[in-house]
Each structure stands twice: as C-alpha cells, then as structure tokens.
Write a structure and sequence with these properties.
Length: 377
C-alpha cells in the first residue's frame, strides 16, 4: 500500500513543472512583440524646382568667310597676317595690275568707238527717213508715180531702223566689256567682304594665283553660336529669343546666357531631330570658335510648391503613396505627383507643409508599423 502511494506522489511531482512550462509558452504566443522599423524622416516644405536636359556642342563664329580670288595675276604684297583685325573692304593683298589696266583702257576705247558709230548711224537714219518721205510722196502721186517701185523700196529699206539697232547692240556689248574690265581693275586687289579677324592666309608675295584660289579666311567673333538637335518632346518648349544658359569650361565655371536665334520647323529626315541654333554675345572675343559648350534647357518649372525626394514615393497597382511618421506609427498617404527632375518630384495633392515624411526605410513598412528614428534610442 505504501509503495503505491509513493509512486502516485512521484507522478504528481513530475507533472507539475511540465504543466507550468506549457502555460508560459501559451502566454508568449498569445502576446507577440512587433519590432520597430528604423526610418529617417524629413519635414515637408515648399520650394522651387526645374527639370532640364543637357546638350553638348562646339561653338562656331557668327560669320566665317572663305575669301576666293576673283582675278588671276601675280601678288605683289600681302597686306595682313593671321590674327590681324581687318575692316570691311580693306585689302588682303595687292596684285600686279599692268595687264588689267591695259585691258580696261582697250575696253574703254572700244566702247567710245561703238558710241561714235551709233551717233553716226543715227544721223544717217534721220537723213534716210527724210529721203524716204520724199520718195513716198513721188511714188504715191495721184497723177501717177514719179519714181519706180524699186526706187521706192530701196528708200524704204534705207529708212529702216535695223542698222541703227545693230550699232546700238554693238555699243551695249562694248559697254559690258568695259564694265567687266573696270570691275576686274577694282577687284584686282582682293578686299575683305566683312569686318573680322584673319584666321587663315593661304598665299604669299610673288605667288601667281588663278581665279577661284582660296586666299584667306575671315571670321566675325562678335557673336558665336552652337547648334543642337532636340527631340519632338523638347521642341515645343523652345522659341526664338528664349534665354538659354550654357557652360564653357575653357573660359569659366560660371554660366553664360545665350538666346535662341532660330528653331527649325521640321525635323531632320534622317535623325528625326529638330535643329536649334543658340547665339551668344562675344564682344571681347574670349570665346573662341571650336570651344566646347554644355547647354542646359529647362523643360518644366515649379515655384513655391511641395517638393519631396523622388525615392520617398512608392508605386502601387493603381496609385502612388508615401508614408508619414504619425507619432511613431507608420501611416500611408496617397499622393498626386507632378513632374520629376530625376531627384525630386512635385506633389500636387496629398501632402501638406509640416508633414513628417519618411524618406528612408519606407520600403519595409506598412500602415501601423512601429517606427524608430535613425540615430534615436
């Protein structure tokens, strides 16, 4: 009997710790602890933002003129050298003009002779007309013709203007020849067609040149320009006269302002891009043709608008949301967005000034998630 009681007591003692352990586990399962998610928060403010696109290009002078020789001959002297300033109509070189002067003199004499011939023919024509009128009266006499038809026709032929017109044509041809010869005399000493700077000289004294020889290059650097090619999504943001900022690393780290000179109304058929020319004032000639320029074109602008980091926005199936830190608890807000410049986004609806926006860690939370600030306790 005593042995049975002892066994029963041992069984009871053995069961007591087992039942206590089971109750503790049940209590732990029924009351789980949710770990707070570490986030970083920024206060929503208003500001200004723009979206722009950059283009690179090479600057060119406003005018670059390739000067071509008009008259063949021997160069006696060259009046300028590379780098010289030159005014419009100033000579680039002096040509030996002996033969040109001789041709001009002969052409003038030929014209004068043709002119005298016209005057003489005109006098003869007046006399012939008078003779014809007398012959006509005799031929048409109502009492019977006093001259033969042959004499009448010869007088009529002599009074025609054909001879006079022929001599006038010869005179006009002689006048053209004289004008050409005089023009050659004027053009013999080649002159600059524009005011600018000599950027190249391809001839020297003593050289014999032919018509069409590339003699020099003259550039006007008072303005410089760059041409860019823009897409159809950009072209309607541009118009003639619009100010465009640019950076020219070779001269300064500060931006300079140019203006759109023209915008092509049609795209290039090969590239499907629209050419645009932007011009910059260059009164001191510090900008050199061939320098590199970076062009920045603003496509959108927003002033005094709510702007947040683009990474704070999460995209759902049919909406975009952000999370706010609502006294240590995550709260989602649906937002309506404006344009994105790649770093920041304009918020049109959904946020107010002063909202505590979560900008780091929002990918790992949901509504009701406990929050802990980055760097906090």
């Amino acid at each position: 009997m005593g042995k049975k009681i002892a066994i029963l007591l041992l069984a009871v003692i053995t069961m007591i710790p087992l039942n206590g352990c089971s109750d503790a586990n049940a209590e732990e399962i029924q009351s789980p602890t949710v770990k707070a998610q570490t986030v970083e928060t920024e206060i929503v403010t208003k500001g200004n933002i723009s979206r722009n696109i950059s283009y690179n290009g090479t600057l060119a002078a406003q005018n670059t003129i390739h000067v071509i020789a008009k008259i063949p001959g021997e160069i006696l002297s060259v009046a300028v050298k590379v780098g010289d300033n030159i005014e419009k109509d100033s000579p680039i070189y002096i040509l030996d003009k002996k033969d040109i002067k001789r041709n001009a003199s002969n052409a003038s004499l030929t014209y004068q002779a043709a002119k005298h011939q016209v005057n003489a023919t005109a006098d003869q024509h007046v006399l012939a007309e008078k003779t014809f009128e007398r012959m006509k009266s005799l031929y048409e006499n109502p009492n019977g013709a006093a001259i033969s038809k042959s004499d009448y026709e010869q007088a009529e032929l002599a009074a025609s203007t054909s001879a006079l017109e022929a001599t006038k044509a010869q005179m006009n041809q002689a006048k053209i020849g004289m004008d050409i010869a005089n023009d050659q005399l004027v053009d013999a000493d080649l002159k600059s067609p524009i005011s600018g700077i000599v950027s190249a000289i391809n001839v020297e004294a003593g050289q014999t040149i032919g018509a069409g020889t590339h003699v020099a290059d003259i550039i006007n650097m008072d303005k410089v320009y760059v041409e860019i090619q823009v897409s159809e999504g950009v072209i309607n943001n541009l118009e003639k006269g619009k100010e465009i900022p640019a950076f020219i690393p070779a001269i300064s780290s500060e931006k300079i302002i140019g203006n759109i000179e023209w915008v092509s109304p049609a795209a290039n058929v090969q590239t499907r891009l629209f050419p645009v020319r932007i011009t910059f004032d260059n009164p001191n000639h510090t900008i050199k043709p061939g320098m590199f320029a970076n062009i920045s074109i603003d496509l959108d602008e927003a002033s005094n608008s709510i702007i947040i980091p683009s990474t704070a926005i999460l995209t759902r199936v049919d909406s975009q949301i952000v999370f706010l830190n609502n006294n240590g608890i995550a709260k989602s807000k649906e937002v309506v967005t404006g344009f994105d410049n790649g770093e920041f986004t304009v918020i049109l609806e959904g946020l107010e000034m002063g909202d505590p926006l979560i900008v780091e860690g929002q990918q790992y939370i949901e509504d009701g998630t406990p929050l802990k600030e980055l760097g906090g306790e």
